Protein: NAD(P)-dependent alcohol dehydrogenase
Amino acid sequence: MFSCIGYAATAPDQPLAPFSFERRDPTPEDVEIDILYCGVCHSDLHMARNEWGVSTYPVVPGHEIVGRVKRVGSDVTRFKAGDLVGVGCMVDSCRTCSSCKEGLEQFCEAGMIGTYNAPDKHTGGMTYGGYSKSVVVYEGFVLKIADTLDPAAAAPLLCAGITTYSPLRHWKVGPGKKVGIVGLGGLGHMGLKFAHAFGAQVALFTTSPSKAEDAKRLGADTVIISTNADEMKAHAGSFDFILDCVSAPHDINAYIALLKRDGTIVSVGVPEKPFQVVTMGLVLGRRSFAGSLIGGIPETQEMLDFCAEHGITSDVEVIKIDEINTAYERMLKSDVKYRFAIDMASLAA
Ligand code: NAP
Ligand code: ZN
Ligand code: ZN
Structure:
């Protein structure tokens, strides 16, 4: 074991504060990573404040990790010291169930092991995430990051990137499809970039009129102010696919009404309260309402390679770790352009 420092929440109503803990020494199949940057996902905030009712304290959040390999275990073949690598929302799974065998480890039948707040078979405690100096991860869950990508701007790809890339691919978003992205935050801005890169006609739904110009720069052909009923009505029955990236409770039925016959709305946002769905909205038009969870390891690598090829990264505001509590408050006010990334050099050794 070796000692590591990070930032943790110790209770739902407490700000994040410095925290020391132990990491395991790498086993033969592990990679030890010095963390350069960690993106700030709204899930970190939900979890730090126990908004999903599953948090075990202390919580060291952070699952958008980019760093350099420090050392590798004796059986590790794919990585060597100095490589630029990433770790997303998972650090392990059962590796044997049908979902794992298909590379859909996020749906592991035994439950995937989250990067934080999950039982850690190595320490007997809970996993601690990327708001920290270093992390030790089984090589099967470590991703390769192209050196051509800016490491701070690449960090959010590990969650916001794959969480939007995966459903857009699964529901075959591409040329000839009219696609909506709801909410211009961390996930939403990556959704815009990918939907545009895949060749779809893209609309952004936002509650923030001030984000309209940015939305067009990020890939939206149209911007719809979702609080304006007339603007919403003008698009009734016209969308093939809508990706809802909103973190707070809102009326999903207003979006279901905008789908074509056989259209699909997918929520990747997980607000703390359940949605109320008007069944008639789905029945009339054979529409579907679905969910999607991050993406498997092979697809995450595919997404990172796609980003390297197409020069896609996140628009980040780099912060020091002692600014994290202010960043959370700003995220709650939808005041982030469009992802915070923590510079881990700001965490004193
Ligand atoms: P974020 O950066 O805070 O963005 C959320 C956006 O939602 C805001 O920027 C805002 O966009 C919109 N919004 C906020 N409050 C709203 C309200 N009351 N009504 C309508 N719109 C509102 O959050 P994020 O990191 O992208 O995460 C979004 C959600 O996805 C969170 O619930 C998170 O836990 C979840 N998530 C899920 C997965 C998964 O695998 N399914 C993975 C990662 C995150 P506008 O200003 O444009 O309206
Ligand atoms: Zn996340
Ligand atoms: Zn499994």
Summary: DSSP finds eleven helices and 17 strands in the chain. Residues 161-291 form a domain with the Rossmann fold fold (CATH 3.40.50.720). The chain has two domains: 2-159+315-346, 161-291.
